[in-house]
Amino acid sequence: MAAQKTKKTKARKRFSAEERRNQLIRIALELFSQRGFEGTTTKAIASAAGVSEAIIFQHFATKEDLYAGILDAKAGETGIEEWKKQLRKFAEQENDEALFLSMAEKILEANRSDPQFQRLTFQAVLSGHPLPKIMAQRILPLHHFLCSYITKRQNQGVFQKCDPSVVVHAMVSLPSYYGLAKSMFGLDLIKLSQHKMALSFTRLILDGLRIPDGMSRRKGKKNATVAPQTL
After folding, report:
1. What does the alpha-carbon distance between residue 38 and residue 127 come to, in Å, rounded to a whole number?
2. Which of 98-112, 155-169, 204-218 is the least confident region?
3. Given 2.40.128, 1.10.600, 1.10.357, 3.40.50, which CATH number is that of 79-223?
4. In principle, which of 50, 65, 90, 136 could form an S-S bond with 60, CB 3.0–4.6 Å?
């Protein structure tokens, strides 16, 4: 009877390669966010998963590969690729409000739905581990895409002339700071729905960025052929 029970337990633990990889990512994310990178060993991850350390290194050659695997998994869960398609569509339509609103809502939703990953990021920054650098490399194409779009709208005479990077940082900073204040200090001072909050952030940025009605936009239209970078 005991032997049959052991066989059933072992059968339940037989994962496909993809299932095992996903399990290791899930456990690593949980342990890293709780204990930090220095406090989490591959031995601890293996123990929590019920496997040997050798199994981990079959799926992830280095810890950096494991960090990258976590990022890939989170991107899949949050529908990043579909969201990027949506951003490209808004850019092609020159729908400023929809583009900026989508950015704000995505950041607010990420902060709300995934505090564990947020804690992991904080742990990585504080301990000097490479996860933030990996994240930065993945964020840069989005930053360049937004800068390119803002430059195009400036050349069309729609947006005020300023450094596009400043605008992108402003877009990201408003919803990000709200999430930071809430998670780190427990401050939740904005009594609005997530959508209304994102809309307020969006309109604050756009109201300061757009050239007021009545001012000439003809001068900027000479350079309106500049297309946004791909995302």
Report:
1. 7
2. 204-218
3. 1.10.357
4. 65
Q: Sign of the CA dihedral 28, 29, 35, 37?
A: positive
pLDDT digits (tens, 9 = 90+) for 152-170: 999 999 999 999 999 999 9
Q: What is the pLDDT of residues 57-95, one digit of tens each?
A: 999 988 778 877 887 787 777 678 899 999 999 999 999
Quick: pLDDT tens for 3-49: 444 444 444 457 788 889 999 999 988 888 788 777 788 899 999 99
Q: Which of 87, 222, 81, 107 is nearest to 154 (CA)?
A: 222
Q: What are phi and psi of 205, to 5 degrees?
A: -65, -50
Burial of 207 (0-12, 13-18, 19+ CB in 10 A): exposed
